[in-house]
Structures are given as structure tokens and as C-alpha cells.
């Protein structure tokens, strides 16, 4: 009986250590952030966990130096660079707790235990490079977008008419 009790105590201790490690990793992942600046220094973006934009700084000169569409492109590229930096921090955090042969980018993408033919959906996908491996994701086709836009437009028109 004492032998079984010792095994149970050991299992519970292992569980508690694993849970504490999980809590620690979760806290580290929640604190992940990335920052990037545009090459000309006019735009600085900060992203948090999951690549969520948390800060965007634009120099007053940015409006003079770039036309609106150019500035929008610089912002998008800068935010993407900040997100890539945050993703790398995420991968490093996960690498510490994953088995050596496991790709943390695949874990984050949800494809770690899938073969490429299992997550490639078909013609309505595109390849997105997340740094470590390309991942396929669904892309809405133009017809669906047009239907959504026309539905939205008619809703707005109906509200204005009332």
C-alpha cells in the first residue's frame, strides 16, 4: 500500500511541476512583444502576443515624405516586421519546453502533427511564410466578398432610408 501511495505522490509532484512550468510559459507568451521601425525611421510599430498591434508611432514628417498609399505600405511592412520579431520570441519561449525535434512555428500554426497534404485545403488557400515553414490558409474568393459587400451596402442603405 505504501508503494502505491509513493507512486501517487510522485505522479502528483510531477503534475505540479508540469503545471507550474505551463503557468510560467503562459506568462512568458502573454508578455511577448515585438517592435520594428521603418528603414527611414518615420514609422515604429509595436505588437503584443499573437502579433496584435499595440502601438504605432508616426513621425510628423511621415505625412510629408510619403503619399498616403506609400505611408500605408510602410506601416503594413513595419507592423509585419514587428510581428515577425514577436513570433521569433514566441518560438524561442516554446522551444524551451517542446521536444527537441518539434518546430515551434508549426505548433503555433497548428500544423505540428500534420502532413502538408492534410492542411492544404485546395484552390481557396494561399501560402503564408511564418518564418520557419510555409503554412496554407484559406482565402475568401472575390464572389463571396462581393456578396458580403453588397449585403452590407444594402443594410446601410436600408438604415439611412428609415
Structural class: alpha+beta
- State the distance separating the first and last CA atoms: 78 Å
User: Shape, please?
Assistant: elongated
Strand adjacency order, main sheet: 1-2-3
The total strand number stands at 5
Return the CATH class of the largest domain: Alpha Beta
CATH architecture group name of the largest domain: 2-Layer Sandwich
Domain tally: 2
User: How confident is the prediction overall: mean pLDDT?
Assistant: 78
Largest β sheet strand count, sense and barrel closure = 3 strands, antiparallel
Number of helices: 6
Instruction: Outline the low-pLDDT stretches.
Output: 125-130, 135-162
- Over the alpha carbons, how many angstroms does the gyration radius reach? 23 Å
Give the amount of beta strand, in percent.
15-25%
- CATH fold descriptor of the largest domain: Ybab, Chain: A
Can you tell me the CATH superfamily of the largest domain? Nucleoid-associated protein YbaB-like domain
Secondary-structure element string: HEEEHHHHEEH
Tell me roughly what share of residues is in helical segments. 55-70%
InterPro entries: YbaB-like_sf, YbaB/EbfC
Pfam family, one: YbaB_DNA_bd
Biased composition (Basic and acidic residues): 147-162
Keywords: Coiled coil
Amino acid at each position: 500500500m505504501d508503494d502505491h501511495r509513493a507512486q501517487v505522490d510522485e505522479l502528483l509532484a510531477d503534475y505540479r511541476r508540469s503545471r507550474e512550468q505551463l503557468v510560467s510559459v503562459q506568462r512568458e507568451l502573454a508578455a511577448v512583444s515585438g517592435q520594428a521601425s521603418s528603414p527611414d525611421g518615420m514609422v515604429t510599430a509595436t505588437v503584443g502576443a499573437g502579433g496584435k498591434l499595440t502601438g504605432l508611432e508616426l513621425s510628423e514628417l511621415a505625412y510629408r515624405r510619403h503619399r498616403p498609399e506609400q505611408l500605408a505600405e510602410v506601416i503594413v511592412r513595419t507592423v509585419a516586421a514587428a510581428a515577425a520579431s514577436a513570433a521569433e520570441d514566441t518560438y524561442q519561449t516554446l522551444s524551451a519546453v517542446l521536444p527537441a525535434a518539434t518546430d515551434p512555428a508549426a505548433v503555433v500554426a497548428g500544423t505540428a502533427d500534420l502532413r502538408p497534404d492534410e492542411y492544404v485545403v485546395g484552390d481557396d488557400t494561399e501560402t503564408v511564410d511564418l518564418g520557419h515553414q510555409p503554412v496554407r490558409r484559406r482565402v475568401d474568393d472575390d464572389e463571396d466578398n462581393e456578396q458580403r459587400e453588397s449585403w452590407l451596402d444594402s443594410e446601410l442603405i436600408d438604415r439611412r432610408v428609415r
